[in-house]
Design goal:
Blueprint lengths: L1 H30 L1 H12 L3 H28 L2 H20 L4 H15 L2 H12 L2 H21 L2 H10 L1 H11 L1 H10 L26 H9 L2 H32 L4 H29 L4 H20 L6 H17 L1 H9 L7 H8 L1 H21 L8 H23 L11
Length: 426
């Protein structure tokens, strides 16, 4: 029995490796438009608002799919969901690179969003079955760190790749490469250890206790929980900043406000990725062990996030390149790295057999933020108008005010959240 348990503990890391590579590709597809934005504007002859619509098309489908993905993961099995969605994402990425028109490009981004929408929730569902609850925040933090690698690949490496081969070819190559982990997922992934004839890890008892599951009743239970909404509202504003600013408009902001080269702007943007890579596991450990708290981590990072936006406003146009690196790194911690802590906190609000539904429903909200903020920021910039083909500094100042005010709203919301971690497991 002990030998088989050791096999379980070893095999789960093979599963984690496949999920990590998949999640890396999710983040690459998510933020790649930020670096290739100028090329797409020229290729499709579109405005800033239209670019926001093109980039946010991914988030429409991604957000809409979160609840169905959660339900399917609970009912059909997360492995099956991941395998099918992986092939869909690959097709969408290749189609996007081949898009002959703006309309086809939007449809292709929607397909990509549908494909990658399943990965995070289904992966968390699998990890919850292979890792103990006291390990979950740390493991999910490492998963988030691999997402940071994907973000990193979508900054300077993508900029260099697009210069060498073209932005279209870059997306086609990414789509072709993503077929490899899709195939591996079919052969390696398993919903639970028992699917591989291995013993379950501790705390697996009762995970599948219910046989007659009413998913609409579960969804109603999730949406009627008041503490769920404290995190959901926080996630809308976090998603708005992460996907609206850092995922699309941060590159143009750095290049047009601070007159930085595309290469330097890409390096500064990569700080978000480095923060995810280096600090996501640390935040997970702090939440599980050091502070033994989900709420404290969420609250403290929210305070720090608002201070960063305020600093960018006070010293607008006068921040040194060094300070831009520092602030973007801190932003990566307070906007992106901390996200898995909020998802784990959501899971802990409900019974284990509702994990997929509760996490999937919550994961809708950051993408609602992306859907709203990507075109909204483009609209704010367009209202000011371009001067000699670029947005003036005053346009980006209005954008920063929007992001600062909404960060304060996020802070207020998370202050009303509930502590979910069990003190006796620390």
């Amino acid at each position: 029995m002990h030998d088989k348990l050791r096999k379980t503990l070893r095999y789960r890391w093979y599963i984690f490796l496949i999920l990590a590579v998949q999640y890396l590709l999710v983040y690459f597809q998510r933020v790649a438009p930020a670096v290739t934005a100028p090329e797409m504007i020229n290729a499709f002859k579109i405005s800033g608002t239209a670019l926001g619509v093109l980039a946010s098309a991914y988030f429409y489908s991604y957000g809409i799919m979160q609840i169905p993905v959660g339900i399917l993961s609970d009912r059909w099995g997360p492995r099956n969901v991941i395998v099918l969605s992986s092939f869909i994402a690959s097709f969408g990425a290749i189609s996007f690179g081949l898009s002959p028109s703006f309309t086809v490009a939007v449809v292709s981004r929607i397909i990509v969003g549908i494909g990658v929408s399943a990965l995070f929730i289904a992966a968390m569902r699998i990890l919850a079955n292979w890792f103990r609850s006291v390990e979950l925040a740390r493991v999910s933090g490492v998963l988030m760190a691999t997402g940071g690698l994907g973000w990193l690949m979508a900054t300077t490496p993508l900029a260099l790749m697009s210069q060498a081969f073209g932005w279209r070819e870059s997306f086609i190559y990414a789509g072709l490469f993503s077929l490899v982990p899709a195939v591996c997922s079919w052969f390696v992934l398993a919903d639970t250890p028992s699917k591989k004839a291995l013993p379950d890890v501790i705390e697996m008892r009762g995970h599948n206790a219910r046989t007659n599951v009413n998913f609409f009743k579960d969804l109603k239970m999730v949406l009627s929980e008041k503490y769920f909404w404290a995190i959901a509202i926080w996630f809308i504003f976090r998603g708005g900043a992460l996907f609206g600013f850092f995922g699309l408009w941060a590159g143009p902001y750095l290049m047009e406000t601070y007159r930085l080269t595309k290469y330097t702007a890409g390096n500064i943007l990569s700080m978000i990725a480095f923060a995810m890579i280096l600090l996501s596991p640390v935040l997970g450990h702090m939440s599980d062990k050091t502070l033994s708290s989900r709420k404290k981590v969420l609250l403290y990072t929210s305070i720090l996030n608002s201070l960063c936006w305020l600093t960018m406003l006070i010293f607008f146009e006068h921040l040194s390149i060094l300070w831009l690196y520092v602030i973007f790194f801190i932003m990566g911690i307070t906007i992106s790295s901390v996200g898995t802590i909020a998802i784990v906190a959501t899971k802990e609000l409900f019974p284990q057999d509702m994990a997929g539904t509760s996490m999937g429903t919550m994961n809708v909200f950051p993408f609602i933020g992306g859907i709203i903020f990507q075109p909204l920021i483009g609209y704010v910039l367009d209202r000011t108008g371009k001067i000699q083909g670029i947005y003036p500094a005053s346009a980006y100042r209005y954008m920063l005010w929007l992001l600062f005010i909404t960060s304060v709203f996020a802070l207020i919301s998370i202050a009303f959240s509930k502590e979910t971690i069990k003190k006796d497991i620390a």
